[in-house]
Specification:
Length: about 475
């Protein structure tokens, strides 16, 4: 991932970001951080890049032309559309979700203002995002840019030495982090909590979760209220876990936003996959609930068949598939009988697209590239040759399982899915998948691995465009 910082003081940013973890990530090629001095692009022989504001007022404004020329120099290095972020207290608040979204970009440009601001005309010309790190004013945009680059970079695969995706990481799903301790065991007569010394990982996990809830309730009641609302809905859905595992997991993973939840009539929006998840038990709620569907939604998962026609009245749709769901709820890890399984990278894109993406409507080469870039695909190798693969979709579900014909019948598919199941369990989530309602072979595989099958089907819909509501 490449960061470009347009600034009057680029050395300030470069020196701050080329240290510690980010410095190591730069040296290893996981990220690139380049400062661009706006003064290098001014026509003034003294390097002047500011002037007095029209209409009067205190201070100076940064001029449009040097900024635009610096921007164009960066764009010459980038392929295609590149988001340009103007760091300003007038922007939308920067959050962990924003960091996750931006970490998926190949290139990002940060424009750092100074003095009294920047000529509005160049902002209108080049800026795509106005983002703030808080309701206060600083002397320049360099420090906010450094904050955002740090938060975004740690989500880029390889930066924190994670061999699997950091997608599941959120702001602890609306909970603050639990208290942590290190040696010595006693300091100033304060003892490390006994549970942390017990070696019982289940009890330790429960203690940490409880402390995180207590801390959030006291320090950030706004976050705790969001967390409590999600937990209440999850507890409701757990009564039909097999049928609503997709909703439960999108909430647990911090991807899902509750747009509506009343009397078993539910609309969630998974921001990561741009998917609406809908269940309506009382059709009287349908009009109001469906009217809350976001305009940028790309697909929908519906739990009742009658919803297909109701959504078709609002959007141009395409029915992708009718599926059952399967989830692995056991405590124990699964044995992976074949050991030569590894995380794949973008060098395997051509192989995967030629064997899978082309054959399955709705999964583009760009999507598969993103799955590889974020470390969400694993492959099985025979004598150094890739023979099959499986992965995790952007909504957190397992899928994309493929084994070459010459290697089938040897348990390779079972080993690949078991590997994925174990990795998801290590992250603290419930492994689950969808399979076509008429795919008997897939059902048998899920049952063999010990997954529970839903009693009801769900329908996947592509939302091509929405009609204006009258």
């Amino acid at each position: 991932m490449n960061f470009y910082i347009l600034s009057l003081f680029p050395d300030m940013v470069i020196q701050g970001l080329h240290t510690s973890i980010l410095g190591r990530a730069v040296s290893q090629g996981n990220i690139s951080i380049q400062g661009v001095n706006i003064r290098d692009y001014t026509n003034d022989k003294h390097g002047k890049a500011d002037d007095y504001p029209y209409g009067g007022g205190a201070g100076m404004l940064m001029q449009a032309q040097p900024i635009y020329d610096a921007y164009q120099a960066v764009m010459d290095k980038c392929n295609g559309r590149t988001r340009t972020i103007y760091v300003t207290p007038q922007g939308i608040p920067f959050t962990q979700k924003a960091a996750e979204e931006l970490s998926g970009e190949e290139n990002l440009i940060f424009l750092c203002g100074h003095y009294e601001g920047i000529d509005e005309r160049v902002l209108e010309e080049i800026v795509t995002d106005y983002i703030s790190i808080g309701d206060y004013v600083l002397t320049g945009g360099e420090l906010p840019a450094m904050v955002m680059i740090d938060a975004i970079s740690r989500l880029v695969p390889g930066v924190l030495h994670n061999d699997f995706s950091k997608e599941s990481e959120s702001f602890h799903n609306d909970l603050l982090e639990y208290p942590q301790y290190t040696r010595p065991e006693i300091w100033k007569n304060k003892q490390v909590p006994e549970v942390l010394l017990s070696g019982n990982h289940k009890n330790i996990s429960k203690w940490r979760h409880q402390k995180a809830k207590e801390r959030t309730a006291v320090r950030r009641p706004d976050l705790y209220n969001k967390y409590k609302k999600k937990e209440d809905l999850i507890n409701l859905l757990l009564h039909k876990k097999r049928n609503y595992i997709h909703m439960i997991e999108t909430l647990r993973r911090g991807h899902g936003e509750i747009l509506y939840a009343q009397n078993n009539n539910i609309l969630l929006y998974d921001h990561k996959s741009r998917t609406c998840q809908i269940s309506i038990e009382n059709s009287e709620f349908a009009d109001n609930l469906l009217g809350l569907m976001p305009d940028d939604a790309g697909q929908a998962v519906v739990s009742q068949e009658f919803l297909i026609n109701l959504i078709a009245e609002r959007c141009e749709i395409q029915i992708q598939s009718c599926c059952y769901q399967a989830c692995y709820t056991r405590q124990e890890m699964l044995p992976v009988k074949y050991k030569d399984i590894h995380i794949l990278d973008e060098s395997h894109l051509s192989y995967i697209c030629s064997h899978y993406a082309v054959e399955h409507v709705g999964l583009s080469a760009d999507y598969m590239k993103e799955r590889l870039r974020t470390g969400n695909m694993c492959g099985a190798f025979f004598h150094g040759q890739l023979a099959g693969f499986a992965g995790i979709h952007d909504d957190g579900s397992m899928g994309m399982l493929y084994v070459e014909e010459g290697y089938r019948g040897q348990g390779l598919g079972e080993a690949l899915e078991a590997y994925i199941i174990n990795r998801i369990k290590e992250s603290g989530f419930t492994p689950y998948c969808h399979f076509f309602a008429d795919n008997r072979r897939s059902r048998l595989l899920q049952e063999k691995l010990g997954l529970c099958i839903s009693s009801e089907t769900i329908w996947w819909l592509t939302l091509n465009s929405c009609f204006p509501q009258t």
